Amino acid sequence: MDLQKRNSADLVSGSGQPASAGFCYLRNLLLCLVLICTSCGSIPREGHQEGVYDPYETLNRKSYRFTDAIDRRLLEPIADVYLKYVPEAIQRPVSNFYRNLSYPSVVLNSFLQGKIHQGFSDTMRFVINTTIGVGGLADMAGHMGFPEHNEDFGQTLAVWGMNSGSYLFIPVYGPSTSRDVADLPVSVFTDGLYYLAYVLSGPVIIPLAILRIVDKRAGLSGPMKVRDESALDPYLFVREGYMQQREYLIHDGNLPASHYDDLLIDDPGLMADPEKTDSAP
Question: How many domains does the chain have?
């Protein structure tokens, strides 16, 4: 199904029943608020909708270089030490803990996208890992058959029919789009760490926040090395990789056939020799 053409009557629950009127009203209200807050100039023009719309490339490249300099001088060395000296038996529970803290955002957006069955499954996953899994340190829900999903408000807006808009590289934060940037406030207010800050004192919450940054950077060490070893233009490498990943997540891994057709068209070798198309895997 073409997600860009869904309307409120098309959204169905996991059991195949139409979404409720209350859900449709909430969806339309949130979408209107996002559209009002988003600059009209950030919506891509018709001629740019098929590719990556990057009208602020000059500014984005400056933001990329600034962020990359901070990463190489500060975050990368710390992440390398973390990966080298901290046992994996500790790294894994730490990653589980922070993913569980941010999981309420996944629960919320599963429901907002009309994935009712998945929403209840995600709710059970969060509850089980928070309780039996000791705050999420252990992924007990995964062992009990509740899979982990990856949903955010940017994906929700895409499901509701909003185009990605212009590509943005936010200093320190990283790649985004004028649509996906709307996820920032949503992810903050659905993050357990945000509410822990009201309960825990500064000497406790600050190290927790720093450790989260280190854990996230450690998880990106592999892709960063691939970028450094193979990318002729690191900025383009990051931009294309981000946009492709977003498409994959929005469609839950089931990309429309048109995406694969574009891959064939982009390969001049296949276009020059039709016989190669038949033999291609």
Answer: 1
pLDDT per residue as tens, the chain (281 positions)? 444 444 444 433 444 444 455 555 555 555 545 554 444 334 433 333 457 899 999 999 999 999 999 999 999 999 999 999 999 999 999 999 999 999 999 999 999 999 999 999 999 999 999 999 999 999 999 999 999 999 999 999 999 999 999 999 999 999 999 999 999 999 999 999 999 988 887 788 999 999 999 999 999 999 999 999 988 999 999 999 999 999 999 999 888 766 655 544 444 444 444 444 444 44
Listed as own residue / partner, the contacts of 81-85 with beta carbons closer than 8 Å and 24 or more positions apart are: 82/214, 82/215, 82/218, 83/218, 83/221
Structure tokens at 58: 């000059």
Tokens representing residue 94 in the block = 């730490």
- 10 found inside a domain: no
Range of the domain at 64: 17-255
**Cα dihedral across residues 207, 226, 169, 112: positive or negative:** negative
Sign of the CA dihedral 22, 101, 124, 15? positive
Q: What angle, 0 to 180 degrees and rounded to 10, lies between the N-to-C axes of helices 221-230 and 76-85? A: 120
Whether residue 122 contacts residue 114, with contact meaning beta carbons closer than 8 Å, is answered with no
Residue 265 domain-assigned?
no
The answer to whether position 6 is within a domain reads no
Report if residue 279 sits inside a domain. Answer: no
Distance CA 171, CA 70 (A): 10
CB atoms within 10 A of CB 227: 16
| Residue whose structure tokens are 């996820």 | 183
The label of the residue with tokens 């928070």 reads 130
- Neighbouring CB atoms inside 10 A of 81's CB total 12
